[in-house]
Amino acid sequence: MKNFFKKYLIKTALVSGLATGLSSCTKDFVALNTNPDAVSTGTPQFIFSKAQYDGTGNMLNLLLGTMQYTTSFNDVAGFGSKYVQSQANSSSSAFSNAYPNEINEIGEVIKGVTGDAAKVNLLAEARIWRVYCFSRLTDLYGDIPYSQAGQGYTNSIYAPVYDAQKDIYANMLAELDAAATSLDAAKITFGSSDLIYGGNTAQWKKFAYSLMLRLGMRMTKVDANAAQTWATKAIAGGVILADADVAKVAYVGSGQDINKNPLALNLLNSDYIKADGKSNTEGGKYQDVFINYLKTNTDPRLPVISVVYTTGTADTTSANQKGMSAMLSTKPADFVTFSEPRQNTLLLLSSPRIVFSAAESYFLLAEAALRGWYSGATATASYQNGISAAMRQWAIIAGANGTISTNQINTYIRYHQLNTAGTFAQQMEQIHTQFWVGVFPDAQEVFANYRRTGYPALVPNNYVGNATGGLIFRRMLYPVSEQNLNTASYKAAIARQGADSFLTRVWWDKQ
């Protein structure tokens, strides 16, 4: 960040000096060298759309491997499931991509609409989206630039301080509270520039309270009282429970890449574009842990999300699905027989990207009920509603190809009842194992939930040459550029939080 603005200022100075020197040659120099198509002030609506695209697109796909959904025999592509030391710096990409894109963009939107009472909804929705973007970032890295982030151009802050995650959480929750309260259905909205809800203020309010529930529950181990306070406030405000209210970014699936589902685009380009089961450039397949779980539990989602190319065509038969081991280091002779994502569901470029699902709300409500923080429904009812919503959402993602019948859903639930006679830990394991299956493919959110709860009880892949001593990592590494360009702030952060290591736990991730 610092380097970019240095270059910008140097270029500006050179251009200014050149203009002065040539003033005697032509008095129309400035006019002749001004781009007639450029604007001096950004349009908040356009920037908001871009911030939504970038915020949704900036995800660490390597976490699909970490949460043991996918793997690869290729060490480079397999970092997420193998934690290979030589590829450790790939974990910094979310940080590097966020600040010049969605963080900077949503900051510009907020500046552009602040102070205008008529634009209260635009401000509120921008604040909510800013919390979403920052929450994903801080949950990956812990302490990050927050209060001074994105102020290089406006305030010449090229080396922003890293705020403590505890303080970031306090501010994000306060922002959600204020933004949700300020929404006014009678005022103007972003309209069609809002790729999630089309400006629907009632749905934005549910999204805000759903994020509040997520962040509140994140604090259960580090500050149970605060967790309860924010979770109950969120529940009272009203969270996403209906399929129609699911927060999702829509994509058209054609034209420029920004118009295509970013997860599907990434997976297709890295591995699955040929759809033959053998020409996978980076050697990716579903991991055996995930496929075995789905098969063992006769999960109706398996044929929806998975195919195997045994005869040159896509076969969705559940009995034929097979996951690949994360311990492979070379391409196996039977590589074609392993399962991979289905082209017209998970790899559909025109499918929406779910940002917050009804399933997640229900699973968190099930835990809240288990803790005695929620009396609106039993833990059993919320747990079952979570499973049902998680299965229905595949129709939201892929239409008819993702549809799971009501009978299939009810049959699955009948054989997967919450064991209310079990211990708190046993019921938590059931709830959050279903969270793992139900929130897929949002591996980043599952990674955060796994670190908080310990579920599902994944066994680490102790691959030769891994960076963690055979343990599932707890956070991502800061970019090397931060050590060089923001040295003082970087050093202060690690002095407070702990070493810039995969095994350093962030504030809310307590044992």
What does this structure look like?
The protein is mostly helical and 511 residues long. Among the domains are: 47-235 and 470-511, Serine Threonine Protein Phosphatase 5, Tetratricopeptide repeat, CATH 1.25.40.390; 257-341, no CATH class. It has 21 helices and nine strands. It has helices at residues 2-21, 29-32, 44-57, 63-66, 79-82, 93-113, 120-141, 152-155, 165-182, 201-218, 224-237, 262-272, 288-296, 302-305, 358-370, 379-398, 406-414, 424-438, 443-453, 480-485, 487-497, and strands spanning 70-72, 144-145, 162-163, 247-249, 284-286, 306-309, 314-315, 340-341, 353-356. The protein has a three-stranded antiparallel sheet. A hairpin with a 4-residue loop joins strand 6 (306-309) and strand 7. Helix 9 runs antiparallel to helix 10. The longest helix has 22 residues, at 120-141. The chain is globular and about 60 Å long. It starts with a helix and ends in a 14-residue tail after the last helix.
